[in-house]
Each structure stands twice: as structure tokens, then as C-alpha cells.
């Protein structure tokens, strides 16, 4: 079954985009006015009042360990400083920061989970350090500017849920110059994928069901498989080329305006003869200080650099939270955009096209994805559109 969290019907969504206010980009040191809380926000914040969503996130050790390690790595910066945890949930990151020596942590969350976060803070004798603020970060008032902003804002394929504009709002309104943002950088990748087992399991399956020919359902199955992004775990063996960077985000400089629509071209070469079933998307985030942020500009960044950097991890002290197919699975899994029909690609065949990911006007919680792909050897063209 396709996951319901991307189809717009489930009230319980870990990841839903929110439309940033249609306002001019923020000037340095100022935050643009926030859009008023609407019905989409209400449903979104309500989804975070369920314990299951917090359990899934906290039990994702790849995620939670990465944040814990990053906080400890920046302990010298955090010690004695003021932190804002944008979207604190249960308060786990706020507690990590308090234990790392923060003088004060403003733990902000608009969901009812903030009520439990306050109790958790009390039960851990941290009420003198952690101030839980129940409200939208766009609306709350705290007593001082902060030295550090920490937030776990990433959604499926990085951009779903669109919580990043709220973090940028907090940065522009509350972060002192030279302050630290964790995570500091995020990169969205895409690559062509082959997944015969998945295709056979959901499309070919219908040709023989208990000896009954149900092929009449094949067109429906193809439509169902390809009309929405699918959240599933694939492995490195499913990826048939080097990945392409869709977007590299520097959280110190990125603007809410830039978030609204992202377009990238890709041109990759197939490493094998395989049926191409679609494209996979995933992301990585890094936790660098403001000083290191300048050497990771989009122009200097290519997938090979990133992969090399990952291999050096361990000797290198940078924390990298990866949701790539070749890495340990996370609750984000990967996002797959399936074609209705696979296309045979040869080794070294060029696959090129473009992708646009933009926030839906209709429902600010959703994304529209427009993928156009050209297989040079066939001269074939496929256009895929996913509307939120
Ligand atoms: C992905 S969860 C992270 C929770 C927690 N920080 C953790 O790491 O386990 C995101 C949280 O941010 C909150 N949130 C999202 N946008 C927000 C906003 N604009 N203002 C306040 N809270 C927000 C949600 O209610 C949710 O609890």
C-alpha cells in the first residue's frame, strides 16, 4: 500500500509542507511577517500531538544519535549560551543542549506535545534552564536573542512538511550575529533507480492471482504506483548512476523565498543495463558552525565530493546525517517517483532532464513535483507530474 502521509488524506502526517507567507524576502536581521495560523497548520500541529510520531522519530537512532553527537561536538560553543529549539516536540534536543551546558533553552512547539515537554523538563530537574513555550515560533515572544538555533525540520525528500521556513523565520528574528544553527546545511539528491521486485509485486502481480487472470487491473496498478511519490527503503543496488544534487541549502543564508520553488537539471550516466523504474530522492544534513559554512557553497559541491567526504567520516569530525540508500535506513526512508512503465537503459546511457519541486498553492502542506526526463539513446521523453 502506498503510504497515506503523502496523499493528502491522512490527518497524521510526520511530514507536510507549509506555505511560507507570500511576503518579500527578509532583510538581514529582520523576519518577514508570518502568515496567520490556518486550518492546515491546525491539522499539522495536531498530528504532532500523537505519541507515535515522536516515538518513531526518537527511536530512529541514526537521526537522534546524529543530533546528540552534533550537540556534544559543539559543546564549547553551547556552554553558557542561550539556545532556541524550534519545534521541540518532547523536548529531547532541548534536554541534550541543557546537559551540554546551555545557560537557557527556549523549547518552542505549537503542538499540544509542548504540555508533555514541560512535564519532561520538570521530571528531569531542568525547569530552571529549559523554558517550554507553547506556540508557533512565528508568534511567540522570548526575553532575549539566542546564540544557537537547533531544529529537526527535515521532511520526506527533505522538503515535505516545509518546516524550514519557520526555522529561517526564527533565525532572522532571534539569532544573534555569528550564532550557530544546527543543522547548518542540507542537500537533496536524486538518482535513477531500478526496482524490479517492487514493480513485479505491485504491477505484474495482477496477471496471475490464485490462477486468476486479473490483468484488467494492471492499468490501475500502474496509475496508482506512479501517481504519487512512494516512501520506501531501497538499497544502493537499486541506484543506477551517481546521484545528482537537486539543492544544497546553507541554513545560515537560505531565504524563505527561495524555498517556494526549486528547479534543478540533471544529466547522469547509467552504470548498468537495467530497467529504469523511476527516480529516488533522499537527503543529507551537516552540522557545521558559521565559520565553516562558507566552504560548502553549491558551486563547489558535487556528489563525488560528498561521497568522498562521507568515506572520510570518522577521521573527519563533521557529523553527517544521511538518508541515502547505501546508508543505514532511517524513518525518512527514500522517496521514489515511479514511471507507469519501466524503460530499458544500457550501460553508459545518458539520462537527463529536470525536476521542479514547489509548494502547492491549493494546499500549503503539499508539494508539487514536476519531473521531465529524456533518454538520449531512445529519444524517448517522459514527463511526470505529482500534484500535492
Ligand atoms: C520533526 S518534529 C521534531 C521534534 C523534536 N525536536 C525531536 O527532535 O524529536 C517537529 C516539531 O516541530 C513542531 N513545529 C513545526 N513547525 C513549528 C512552528 N512553526 N512553531 C512551533 N513548532 C513547530 C511540530 O509541532 C513538531 O513537534
Structure description:
This protein is of the alpha/beta class and about 400 residues long. The protein has a domain at about 185-388: Hnrnp arginine n-methyltransferase1 (Distorted Sandwich), CATH 2.70.160. It is about 25% helix and about 30% strand. It contains 11 helices and 15 strands. Strands 6, 7, 8, 10, 11 and 12 form a 6-stranded antiparallel sheet that branches. The radius of gyration is 22 Å and the shape is elongated. Mean pLDDT is about 85; it is low at about 1-30 and about 295-300. The structure holds S-adenosylmethionine. S-adenosylmethionine binds near residues 90, 108 and 136. S-adenosylmethionine (SAM) binds near residues 48, 93 and 136. This is Protein arginine N-methyltransferase domain-containing protein. One of its GO terms (biological process) is methylation. Keywords: Methyltransferase, S-adenosyl-L-methionine, Transferase.
Task: Give a short overview.
The chain has helices at 39-47, 51-59, 61-73, 75-78, 92-99, 113-123, 164-174, 196-202, 218-227, 256-259, 303-312, and strands spanning 82-86, 104-109, 130-134, 146-151, 175-182, 185-193, 230-232, 244-250, 261-269, 274-286, 320-322, 334-345, 350-359, 367-375, 380-386. By secondary structure, the protein is an alpha/beta fold. It has a domain at 185-388: Hnrnp arginine n-methyltransferase1 (Distorted Sandwich), CATH 2.70.160.
Quick one: biggest sheet? 6 strands, antiparallel
Rg (C-alpha, Å): 22 Å
Helix-strand string: HHHHEHEHEEHEEHHEEHEEHEEEEE
Overall mean pLDDT score? 86
* Low confidence ranges: 1-29, 295-300
CATH architect. name of the domain at 185-388: Distorted Sandwich
Amino acid at each position: 500500500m502506498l503510504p497515506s502521509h503523502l496523499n493528502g488524506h491522512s490527518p497524521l502526517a510526520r511530514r507536510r509542507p507549509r506555505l511560507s507567507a507570500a511576503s518579500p524576502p527578509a532583510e538581514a536581521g529582520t523576519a518577514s511577517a508570518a502568515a496567520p495560523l490556518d486550518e492546515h497548520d491546525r491539522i499539522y500541529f495536531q498530528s504532532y500531538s500523537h505519541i507515535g510520531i515522536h516515538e518513531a522519530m526518537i527511536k530512529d537512532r541514526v537521526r537522534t544519535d546524529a543530533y546528540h553527537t552534533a550537540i556534544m561536538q559543539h559543546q564549547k560553543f553551547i556552554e553558557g549560551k542561550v539556545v532556541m529549539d524550534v519545534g521541540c516536540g518532547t523536548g529531547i534536543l532541548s534536554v541534550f543542549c541543557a546537559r551540554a551546558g546551555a545557560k537557557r533553552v527556549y523549547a518552542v512547539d505549537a503542538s499540544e506535545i509542548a504540555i508533555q515537554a514541560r512535564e519532561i523538563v520538570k521530571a528531569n530537574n531542568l525547569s530552571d534552564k529549559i523554558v517550554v513555550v507553547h506556540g508557533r515560533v512565528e508568534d511567540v515572544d522570548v526575553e532575549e536573542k539566542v546564540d544557537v538555533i537547533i531544529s529537526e525540520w527535515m521532511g520526506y525528500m527533505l522538503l515535505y512538511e516545509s518546516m524550514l521556513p519557520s526555522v529561517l523565520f526564527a533565525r532572522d528574528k532571534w539569532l544573534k550575529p555569528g550564532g550557530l544553527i544546527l543543522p547548518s546545511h542540507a542537500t537533496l539528491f536524486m538518482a535513477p533507480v531500478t526496482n524490479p521486485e517492487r514493480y513485479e509485486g505491485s504491477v505484474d502481480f495482477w496477471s496471475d492471482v490464485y490462477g486468476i487472470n486479473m490483468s484488467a487491473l494492471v492499468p490501475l496498478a500502474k496509475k496508482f504506483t506512479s501517481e504519487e511519490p512512494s516512501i520506501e527503503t531501497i538499497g544502493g543496488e537499486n541506484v543506477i548512476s551517481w546521484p545528482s544534487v537537486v539543492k544544497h541549502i546553507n541554513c545560515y543564508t537560505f531565504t524563505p523565498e527561495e524555498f517556494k520553488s526549486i528547479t534543478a537539471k540533471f544529466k547522469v550516466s547509467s552504470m548498468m543495463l537495467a530497467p529504469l523504474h523511476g527516480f529516488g530522492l533522499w537527503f543529507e544534513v551537516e552540522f557545521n558552525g558559521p565559520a565553516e559554512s562558507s566552504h560548502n557553497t553549491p558551486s563547489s559541491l558535487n556528489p563525488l565530493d560528498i561521497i568522498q567526504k562521507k568515506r572520510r567520516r570518522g577521521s573527519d569530525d563533521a557529523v553527517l546525517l544521511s538518508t541515502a540508500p547505501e546508508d543505514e535506513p532511517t524513518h525518512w526512508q527514500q522517496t521514489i517517483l515511479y514511471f507507469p512503465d519501466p524503460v530499458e537503459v544500457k550501460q553508459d546511457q545518458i539520462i537527463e532532464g529536470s525536476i521542479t519541486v514547489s509548494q502547492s498553492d491549493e494546499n500549503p502542506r503539499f508539494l508539487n513535483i514536476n519531473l521531465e526526463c529524456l533518454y538520449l539513446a531512445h529519444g524517448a521523453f517522459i514527463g511526470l507530474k505529482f500534484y500535492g
